[in-house]
């Protein structure tokens, strides 16, 4: 590289271009930054050769004017000094500079395309049409290239404009050929189906790869697929062709028109190898054939390719319909981690091919830390997640990476690193290709070539450029490697665990006996059963019962050591092994789930502790493995979700459902997933007990609300709105309300709890009918609605039952109507209700209903609870009811019932309810639905002292914790502890964070002994149980 002083322009050029000293100084600085400053003088002379000696030539005047402006000087010099390709364009068409300077290019998509189309359709001569296409391409590339080299256009604008040039020239060529073919062969007409009319066949061209994503390079092929919508028919001209022959012939002509070399060069190389069956497939094929192919034989790489597909020419509506029909093939509704293995294999093949060409370190697209690794990283996440997350259904690489970070699926720092790397590497790729418009992705082999590339990148220091290139590629490969090979490393690491190796090597009877002894040492209570269960892990699934694909077998083999280590590390390995084996048997036929677990060691770390501690949560996963799709994410169990967040998510899922059955499935899946999430937060220590109970209550309310909305919508569609008329003849809308009682009313719902509900409507007056064409009385309407809601919540299916419903607290109990009018409810509570029903009202809460109706219900409840009462009578009735309840539900010997035991949960709840009914008239602030909040209010009112409050509050919290853990352990509504079930009780103690089952029993007995005297001091019993 010579000194820049020798690269100055000749005096002839300085004079011809009318350069003043300021312009000369600027040019000296610019020339010094170019890749080939020594050649710039001769290059410029060649561009001006035909009019260098004619200063009055408009072209020379345009060059002079351009050189007088610093921005145009910069564009011209950086183009001529860095790109022989752009230099050749200016040599061939020096008038382009005048065109760009005087009017520029309007890069709005539709006007740009229309100009190219109109120009091409202005000639019927094919050779002239091909010439015009190439002129448009070169003029546009000159403008794009100059703005790219100067840094005026960001990468995204450059690639979008390059893609627009391809789109416009392709559409223009297609329309020109369509006109030509119709004149020669006639219009392609589809044979009408029975009763239909003959119509013209539609044709569309899909852009794939970088073209589809608006990410073309300066020397990209354009990847295309040709489709027509009907293959039964002929053209209607004198020279007839079948539909297929017509479009195959046109397709070949279109490829030739775009890619053949003429004296003006080419437009774009075309590549149709991404079509169904690749090079062996039909050049143009029907939409139906393509859909059949993808649905029946489509592979993972074809799903990945279709992510970027878009219609680029022809009938856009046909293209969009085709892609919509293909949507389930491309974007699976479940998490598809099986795609990772396929993509990993694709990349290994690419690496092998590139290595064979000695280009792994040189190729910035396919080699180490190259562009393809970033694209594979983004597309892999799309194949896995985009079926469930629409924001990931984007063709462009950088927006996908942004969305992945926004969704918490990758770290923000990873996204930022990859986006920065992508822009840098794509810019390097552009600088390589803009030299001679060659389709190459390799870095130069020699130092001079690297120096020139560095200068084209605007970096004068080659060492600095090479250091950045190495750093960026290293960062890309590290992120790619973590995604695709971290699981392999962990499998290797866990497979090296001595316990795993010993087990997997067991074969003889002697070895089996040693293994049983070793299993006992590892903490297994039942080593014989454990060894039998472990056969699945050692021998693999029965090939007849559970035949696995080759990919499934590989995933299973990689998964086993990971699971075994978690089992051996579990505090209760017997339980962990039992649930893990059941889980594996459930998912063996779903290779995708095996792959999901292998590729997500973090997910295994979440679910394996569940298998070792909770039958309730384990069966949720075993029976509904689809829930795992929702577990993949950085914040699934760490983030608190309130009613509003749950409502929004459920609404999105319900809106995406296509029919009532799918809505029902979505509702069940939402409830099961959220139940599991809350349980996992609970066990992992991310949520306190009060938050768990409140969360379970909120979940039930949201599900109940959705069931009511669906029922109301269905009935109104058939019968219209329920209306009622008042004495003045005014019509009013009758509304539906759900009142939660018991634990749901108090925000204390537990796992497996029933929902205690009362249904109320607001209809009244004499005229109570719906206003639809198929009228029914409001009584019938609301009765049917209640039945629908109950049916939705209690229906048992493969997805399980949502909730058990208990309606016995409604007016008149089981003998009363399922739905009561608000007026009848108020009358019953004032005139007929028993004391125990007023006790239950202390926890009543409207969970579904209009604000005005909820307010009216609260007023009714408040009025009842604030009534003055005769204390002795109240005391007797409450105590008698508690005694009767205990006698009816007295546990047998050797069983502790934490709910019914003297001093247990019911004693505390009855005491709270008694104090509210006895004293609310004088102290309304003690009316609280939640037991712990009620105790605090009762203490503040001076009705109990601090010591009593502490004893009751601590006991109640501990009882509810034990109840919570009992239900997690047993997968049923359970309140009893059987003293002779030592193993179960040890498991329960562990869940309660206690060292032994005896410590658990002792703690319960201590609380019973403290609570019972407090209870009897307020509510004496005639006979002590």
TrEMBL record:
Annotated ranges, domain PII-uridylyltransferase/Glutamine-synthetase adenylyltransferase: 344-484, 896-1017
Catalytic activity: [glutamine synthetase]-O(4)-(5'-adenylyl)-L-tyrosine + phosphate = [glutamine synthetase]-L-tyrosine + ADP; [glutamine synthetase]-L-tyrosine + ATP = [glutamine synthetase]-O(4)-(5'-adenylyl)-L-tyrosine + diphosphate
Keywords (A to Z) from UniProt: ATP-binding, Magnesium, Multifunctional enzyme, Nucleotide-binding, Nucleotidyltransferase, Transferase
Tagged with keyword Lipid biosynthesis: no
Residue ranges of every copy of the Glutamate-ammonia ligase adenylyltransferase repeated domain listed in the record: 75-324, 607-855
Region (Adenylyl transferase): 496-1025
Enzyme class: transferase
Cofactor: Mg(2+)
GO biological process entries: regulation of glutamine family amino acid metabolic process
Signal peptide extent: none
EC number from the UniProt entry: 2.7.7.89, 2.7.7.42
SUPFAM superfamilies: Nucleotidyltransferase, Nucleotidyltransferase substrate binding subunit/domain
Pfam family, one: GlnE
Keyword Secreted part of the UniProt annotation: no
Cellular component annotations (GO), alphabetically ordered: cytosol
Region (Adenylyl removase): 1-488
GO molecular function: [glutamate-ammonia-ligase] adenylyltransferase activity; [glutamine synthetase]-adenylyl-L-tyrosine phosphorylase activity; ATP binding; magnesium ion binding
Role of this protein: Involved in the regulation of glutamine synthetase GlnA, a key enzyme in the process to assimilate ammonia. When cellular nitrogen levels are high, the C-terminal adenylyl transferase (AT) inactivates GlnA by covalent transfer of an adenylyl group from ATP to specific tyrosine residue of GlnA, thus reducing its activity. Conversely, when nitrogen levels are low, the N-terminal adenylyl removase (AR) activates GlnA by removing the adenylyl group by phosphorolysis, increasing its activity.
Protein family (similarity comment): Belongs to the GlnE family.
Record's protein name: Bifunctional glutamine synthetase adenylyltransferase/adenylyl-removing enzyme
